[in-house]
Amino acid sequence: MDSAYLADLIRSATVWIIPVILAITLHEAAHGWAASRLGDPTARLMGRVTLNPVAHIDPFGTLILPALLLVIKAPFLFGYAKPVPVNFSRLNNPRRDMALVALAGPASNVLLAVVAALLVHLVDAVPAFASEWLADNLSNLFWLNLVLAVFNMLPIPPLDGGRILVSILPDRLAWKMARLERAGLFIVIGVLFLLPFMAAQVGVRLDVARVLVWIPVETLASAIMAVTGH
């Protein structure tokens, strides 16, 4: 492996590790906190309402998958943590509260993106040798959190958007949608990555990720940057 490529890869890893862990940890802790506040203590009793990343890390989804996407220079970086256990029947109002618990994760990512945008204003106060590294971390924290927020709001279970959709659909449709949960993540990966790849083999450009993820991310980013003075 070329030494320059290796050095670049190591530096890329150092400015992605903290953003990935922060984004995924806060996302999962937010789900657990919301469930606890709304009547279900399952996640709290299992130690999942915590900012300790060890409690949330999934070896493949949190570490290996983002690393692979980084190496192959995928259109965007994402990952996942161990699902937070929620007993929906114990929520005060299961239908409504299912949606609120699901929404808490993406909302925490948007909040973290806002914090990252605000902290960028302090980069110039950091010693020169660390300012570029910090700026890259904050930039990655900003964009990664927006990608996670938008990606998780796609309306397919087990993504948060899918669970919100299940909570508002009539019972018959909700049941059919909920049955997609086991295969939902494979459907999303197929649509975002495999379908465009296969289309490219026959000369067709099918940029599904841009339409479903990047355009909403860029719109949300513009709004946050305007609000935070960029």
Automatic annotation (TrEMBL):
Answer whether the UniProt record assigns the keyword Lyase to this protein: no
Record keywords, A-Z: Cell membrane, Hydrolase, Membrane, Metal-binding, Metalloprotease, Protease, Transmembrane, Transmembrane helix, Zinc
In this chain the Peptidase M50 domain maps to: 17-121, 137-194
Q: Please give a single GO biological process term from the UniProt record.
A: proteolysis
* TM region(s), chain numbering: 12-34, 54-78, 99-121, 141-159, 180-199
- Report the cofactors: Zn(2+)
Which GO terms of the cellular component aspect does the record hold? plasma membrane
Molecular function, one GO term: metal ion binding
Tell me yes or no: is Nucleotide-binding among this UniProt entry's keywords. no
Q: Which InterPro entries match?
A: Metallopeptidase_M50B, Peptidase_M50, Rip2-like
Subcellular locations according to the entry: Cell membrane
Principal localization?
Answer: membrane
Q: What topology does the record note for this protein and the membrane? A: Multi-pass membrane protein
Taken from the record, one Pfam family name reads Peptidase_M50
Q: Where is the signal peptide?
A: none
By sequence similarity, the record places it as follows: Belongs to the peptidase M50B family.
Q: What is this protein called?
A: Peptidase M48
Provenance organism:
Thalassobaculum fulvum
* Lineage of origin: Bacteria, Pseudomonadati, Pseudomonadota, Alphaproteobacteria, Rhodospirillales
